[in-house]
């Protein structure tokens, strides 16, 4: 019901014909709901993009099926837009740093908590610390407890992202060549919040996974056909 009257209704009300629906899902229990909603509203059975779908990028992850669809599609979209090698740091619920080598192969990466999880953990695991919405504080040294939590979350997440990116970059150089210069791309819902603290980043891509789905959708439809 929520899908019908919120997100998907937006498309139906604009009289747009839907030819194909492509989905990146990391919540398997919702796949059936998405399928039913798409079939009822658009008369289209969605295509779910995962490690079993040939996106044209070799996956060097063990096993490949354990690589999240959002990670694969983000890396695929980043490579299509910026070439390889690359490092993609996506900051949302989780902070994920992935690497694509010079051969265009997804070689894996790492997963850490994102800013929101930091905030929720501090609040739920302590008696007195408030739940703070991640935001940029006025200074590192805070004068109140809410400001102290905000500073710790913001600068802690930024420092972690910077450090993890540098470690992945160093290891990628060891695997490839010392003079390899991977493009470093930032994405995710909290990427825009932290971009000013990450001078190591070359470019911020707000909708990278959606861009990847768009590219794959056009491939499925075939060259020369439009995608709604």
Description:
The protein has 228 residues and is of the alpha/beta class. 42% of the residues lie in helices and 14% in strands. The chain has 8 helices and 7 strands; from the N terminus they run ααβαβαβββααβαβα. Strands 5-4-3-6-7 form a 5-stranded mixed sheet, sandwiched between helices. A two-stranded parallel ribbon has the order 1-2. Helix 4 crosses helix 8 (208-221). It starts with a helix and ends in a 7-residue tail after the last helix.
Q: Keywords for this structure?
A:
8 helices; alpha/beta; two-stranded parallel sheet
Query: What's the rounded overall pLDDT mean?
Result: 91
Structural class: alpha/beta
* Major sheet summary line: 5 strands, mixed
Number of helices: 8
N-to-C terminal Cα separation, in Å?
22 Å
Strand content: 5-15%
* Total E-strand runs: 7
- Cα-atom radius of gyration: 20 Å
Order of helices and strands: HHEHEHEEEHHEHEH
Point out poorly predicted stretches: none
Shape label:
globular
Task: Give, in spatial order, the strands making up the sheet with the most strands.
Answer: 5-4-3-6-7
**Quaternary structure state of the chains depicted:** single chain
Helix content: 40-55%
Please provide a brief summary of the model:
The chain is of the alpha/beta class and 228 residues long.
Element layout with pairings:
Blueprint: H1 2-5, H2 7-12, E1 22-23, H3 31-42, E2 47-48, H4 69-82, E3 86-91, E4 94-100, E5 106-113, H5 115-124, H6 145-175, E6 183-187, H7 191-194, E7 203-204, H8 208-221
Parallel strand pairs: 1-2, 3-6, 6-7
Antiparallel strand pairs: 3-4, 4-5
């Amino acid at each position: 019901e929520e899908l019908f009257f919120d997100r998907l209704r937006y498309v139906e009300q604009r009289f747009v014909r839907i030819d194909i629906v492509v989905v990146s899902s990391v919540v398997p229990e919702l796949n059936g709901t998405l399928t039913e909603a798409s079939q009822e509203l658009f008369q289209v059975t969605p295509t779910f993009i995962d490690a079993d779908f040939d996106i044209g990028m070799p996956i060097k992850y063990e096993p490949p099926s354990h690589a999240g669809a959002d990670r694969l599609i983000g890396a695929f979209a980043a490579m299509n837009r910026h070439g390889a090698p690359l490092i993609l740091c996506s900051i949302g619920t989780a902070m994920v740093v992935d690497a694509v080598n010079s051969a265009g192969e997804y070689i894996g990466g790492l997963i850490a908590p994102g800013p929101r999880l930091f905030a929720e953990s501090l609040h739920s695991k302590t008696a007195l610390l408030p739940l703070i919405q991640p935001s940029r504080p006025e200074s590192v040294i805070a004068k109140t407890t809410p400001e102290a939590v905000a500073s710790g979350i913001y600068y802690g997440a930024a420092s972690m992202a910077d450090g993890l990116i540098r470690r992945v970059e160093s290891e990628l150089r060891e695997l490839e060549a010392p003079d390899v210069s991977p493009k470093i791309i930032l994405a995710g819902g909290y990427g825009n919040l932290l971009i000013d603290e990450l001078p190591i980043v070359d470019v911020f891509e707000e909708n990278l996974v959606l861009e990847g789905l768009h590219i794959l959708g056009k491939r499925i439809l075939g060259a020369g056909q439009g995608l709604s």
